[in-house]
Prior knowledge:
nine-stranded mixed β-sheet, 30% helix, single chain, eight-stranded mixed β-sheet, alpha/beta
Amino acid sequence: MSQVLRARWLGRVRYQDGLALQRGLWSEGRDDWLLLLEHRHVYTLGVRARNEHVLVDPASVGAELARSDRGGDVTYHGPGQLVGYPILSVPMGPNASPCHVHRIEQLVIEALADLGLAGAGRLDGYPGVWVDSGGGHPRKICAIGVRVSRGRSMHGFALNVAPDMDYFSHIVPCGIADKPVTSLAAEGIDVPMSRVVDAVVARATSIWGYDRVDRADVAWRVGTEELAPFTRGEGPGEPVGRATVVGAGRVGRATVVGAGRAGPATVVGAGRVGPAVPVRMIDKRLAEAGVDPAGGVPLDARKPEWLRVNARMGEEYRSLRRTMRQLDLVTVCEEAGCPNIYECWADGTATFMINGDRCTRACGFCLVDTRKPLPADPDEPERVAEAVARLGLAHAVVTTVARDDLSDGGAGAFAATVAAIRRRVPGTAIELLISDCKGDPDSLATIFAAAPEVLNHNVETVPRLQRAVRPSASYARSLAVLARAKAAGLTTKSGLIVGMGETFAEVVSTLADLNGVGVDIVTIGQYLRPTSHHLPVVRWWKPEEFAQLAAAGEAMGIPHVEASPLTRSSYHARQAAASAAEMAAGGAVGAGAAVGAGAAAPAESGSFG
Length: 609
């Protein structure tokens, strides 16, 4: 058994994302995990569910309907209900599932006692945890349903804290028509979800016998304020550092290149509008995450020596820039103000940004334009392929702005771009850096079917800072995207930026999550504040700290970790992909033996009841 329990409070997660994440941790991970979360309104059907036990059209009450590979009948998940997914190593045997269910029941019973609900227990013949189980009016407070296969568990329990109990009236809960359900709130126990999570984690650690718990939580508060689409914030903000205009006359976009570093920043173009998140909202979210928005590095502070970049506008740089202009293409190198632009362009490499240059999201660290997007350009894939051919790229990186306004999130453009490059330059390796496509399985499947050599999706930061750093995204969803890509047989990659208030231990925990879903390549770099209206830099990480993070990630089993102050998602992309491939080839024999040894192990499903 693992000596560490990795407990994660993930906030509110769509069921399909939670299921994909579970499957990734089950199939790729070797550690033990306890995922704790709330789901959006959903009814789930176990392997023995009867359709007639769903009494209404779920959509009519604002819920989804999902099939699951757990045991049992139909149940409900929604806000106010704590869902726990223990993904653990379980001793196999004829009673593996019943024993695992019994352990979960004991955990919940003792946690409920800690919360002030005495007398919760088991009811013979009915899995789960019950109130007044020995009296005349038993009421189910926690449903349990599991799947155990190859010595690993999935699924778990659903503890009613304070959900809308009307949702249970639209089903026959767990197929049991003659026994009601209840909640902590209905039993007179008024406790916040955070306290329930604390009680469950404490009991899981002690009852299950772990030496320690690695705990990480996304920000607890779920705010009610929502940004209008394509808002511009409170003006452009002031670039950090002095600005020197280069290439004046370019119309429509303006990008600060290398903003925040010592020495002059470079502003390309004109007319740039600021970030989409108002400053007051950024400050509020930082405070909620435990970061003092007024603290950190002063705007006018001199940057460390290791963050200084010299402009190198040689012939290679100028030639690549001419190609981009001639083909009317966008690079993230320019749009995101990457400090490595001179090195990469001098080396003849660039990252193409498709689906336009205007993003529908409002990440607090990003410089990309957030005005209303223009219509998709159907000719863009062919122009990217032409640029790849002209530049003679052996490894082409293609990324995108988030396009939540498109039905497929821009997935079709990725597939078309991959196809165009392969027609034009068949030998070029292709790396895609994708958005989450709102977790839509069909959109993601479109991208995965294009079979890029590397599939990159960034988690960007540690769980605690997700809401402040990228409020329109989800940590659980990002891990689920990576898990889905790995299940599709792709080489996967993800990245983080540091310096926004995270701790060293939190970054290591995030590396463990990425390793848990089988990520092959991780990039870690220092955050550089583009303008005064973006997130502040809390501190500068030192080069030796990046080296320590790389060593920690690779010691876990991540094949390649690229970490340095100036590392960005596509920095040394070709070399990183080659390194990960070499590591994977070296470990293929051992990994194959491990999978083969477990393949014959039986699978069991426990009832969700």
